[in-house]
Design brief:
It is a single chain. This protein is an all-beta fold. The chain folds into 2 domains: about 60 residues, no CATH class; about 450 residues, no CATH class. Helices cover about 0% and strands about 45% of the residues. The strands form 12 sheets. Strands 8, 12, 13, 14, 17, 18, 19 and 20 form an 8-stranded antiparallel beta sheet that branches. Strand 5 and strand 6 form a beta hairpin. The radius of gyration is 23 Å and the shape is globular.
Length: about 525
């Protein structure tokens, strides 16, 4: 019997019914700071939602299947989950728990009935502060790059780079870490250079976690040898990464905590807009990490440089227009990249924050409701403001910003050099719960400062990127092959054969009856 093989292309015609980092589950792996309380002492999780009816969110720790806490939240009553100070071995691990498999570290937040919510982690110490916004289900995947900021500073024992990993799927997950510099040195418990292998393989079961630290003073290579390393797994994981602390200025001891949670490579993009904070040019810098060889980076439509997979490029802040707070920068790439932004709450180099930036696209959500208690970092009052990227087709009168004082006027509008599709705003001095409502796509970030401590967060964009996962039964031969879109999470489907729409083929499963090109 002749067997015909299936030639398959796939197109999804759909809109995803979730927004920004809204999700019914959030995974928060632990991280490692360079010394207890040196980057973070006081710390808390801020939960918010657009849902008007109150619901419960359960908190699970490590591999524990019993919730350790339950938080009730609604749109008007956000929640806060407080956690023990410093190296509590839940959010931040001690030296002893670094470089080994952990059963009781890391947290998972999950609503009881599928309701969607945001999770924003904020931490501080006497002179440092940081924020990490969970990406929910979009955070889990099988292929990542280690992100953060090159640690140019010297002399401070608290400087490091850190990576936290959590296994999310049942069974055993094997994780390979590779592509970092061969002279990198990582901590193994009490030995700050105890791991020197050129590749690492870690095996975790669901809920287990693993933390790496590249301590800056272990070797000069640890300035940046870890940046862009590949984290690849055979089942889904979530990661968090950055610097606790980081020192971005060459030859300076200025430092701050810089962390965020990225998404896997399959939900990245090529078009990014950055909005400048209050810092100087060497502090206000996007960091681009390549996922493919021969990736061209354009700034304002002009070719800046070309990088390969695992390589990074720091874009100088002089490329912002105007060269002051609220200035913006338009960056496009020829292939998908990781895009981080280092920015500052004030003109001082030690007030930095780190955001993992979402690519702009027409499917960005049209609302953010809400950033809860924007000025608060576990009891400390920060001067808070937001940044907005909005479509130029949306009238300004249709972009409504509110905080606890009422409706706030848009401010600091800027055109974006290199594209006519987007405009930006910077609105300082906000207080309480902050929401943005629009009739078109928007992306919202926040930043704040209190004395020597800076903080930043980014709330928009990743759940609007369609992720298609396919499986074929029957070996891909005809007859007897079915094609499945296995996530079953899209609102609508339409299959085509040889460019012609197939009547009635509108589910996530399709059975071809003859050879052809299907999409």
């Amino acid at each position: 019997m002749k067997k015909y093989y299936l030639s398959l292309f796939f197109l999804i015609v759909s809109f995803i019914s979730v927004q920004a980092q809204l999700s019914n589950v959030h995974y928060l792996p632990p991280l490692k700071q360079g010394g207890n309380n040196q980057a973070i002492r006081q710390q808390a999780f801020y939960l918010s939602t657009p849902e008007t009816m109150a619901f419960n969110v359960n908190v699970f720790q490590g591999t524990n299947i019993t919730a350790i806490a339950t938080i009730n939240i609604s749109n008007t009553t956000p929640g806060q989950y407080n956690i023990a100070d410093g190296d509590n071995n839940i959010t931040l691990v001690t030296n002893t728990n670094t470089g080994i498999v952990l059963n009781n570290s890391g947290l998972r937040f999950q609503s009881e009935n599928g309701e969607e919510f945001y999770v924003n982690y904020r931490g501080r110490s006497s002179s440092q502060a940081t924020s990490l916004t969970s990406k929910g289900r979009q955070a889990i995947g099988t292929l990542f790059k280690w992100g953060g900021r090159p640690n140019y500073g010297n002399g401070q024992n608290s400087l490091n780079a850190t990576l936290g990993i959590m296994a999310t799927d049942p069974g055993t997950t094997t994780i390979n870490i590779y592509g970092y510099g061969t002279d990198c040195e990582f901590r193994l418990q009490g030995d700050n250079d105890g791991i020197t292998d050129d590749t690492l393989t870690i095996t975790l079961t669901q809920g287990q976690t693993y933390v790496l630290e590249a301590w800056r003073n272990a070797t000069i290579a640890n300035i940046d040898c870890w940046l862009g390393a590949t984290i690849q797994s055979d089942k889904k994981i979530a990661i968090s990464n950055g610097n606790l602390n980081g020192a971005p200025r060459i030859g300076s001891n200025n430092r701050d905590a810089l962390i965020d949670q990225p998404v896997p490579e399959n939900v990245l993009g090529r078009e990014y807009i950055f909005i400048r904070g209050n810092g100087q040019n060497d502090i206000e810098t996007p960091i681009i990490i390549g996922t493919q060889n021969g990736t061209d980076i354009f700034v304002g439509g002009v070719l800046e440089t070309t990088i390969n997979t695992g390589e990074y490029y720091v874009i100088d802040g002089s490329n912002y227009t105007p060269a002051a707070v609220s200035g913006n920068m338009y960056v496009t790439t020829s292939k998908e990249v990781y895009a981080y932004q280092h920015l500052a709450g004030s003109g001082s180099a030690f007030t930095g924050g780190l955001n993992f930036i979402a690519p702009v696209n027409c499917l960005l959500p049209d609302r953010l409701s809400n950033i809860s208690n924007i000025r608060d970092v576990d009891g400390a009052n920060f001067n808070g403001g937001i940044t907005i990227v909005a479509s130029t087709t949306t009238p300004n009168t249709n972009i409504i910003v509110t905080d606890d004082t009422g409706t706030i006027a848009l401010a600091n509008e800027q055109a974006v050099i290199g594209t006519g599709d987007w405009k930006t705003f910077y609105i300082p001095g906000l207080t309480g719960n902050v929401s943005v409502q629009s009739t078109g796509p928007i992306a919202v970030g926040f930043l704040g400062v209190s004395g020597a401590a800076g903080i930043a967060g980014y709330f928009s964009g990743f759940d609007t990127v369609p992720v298609v996962e396919l499986d074929v039964t029957g070996g891909g031969c005809l007859p007897g092959a079915d094609v499945f879109e296995i996530s079953s999470s899209f609102d609508a489907y339409q299959w085509f054969q040889n460019g012609v729409q197939i009547a009635g083929a509108i589910t996530n499963v399709f059975t071809p009856t003859e050879p052809g090109d299907f999409l």
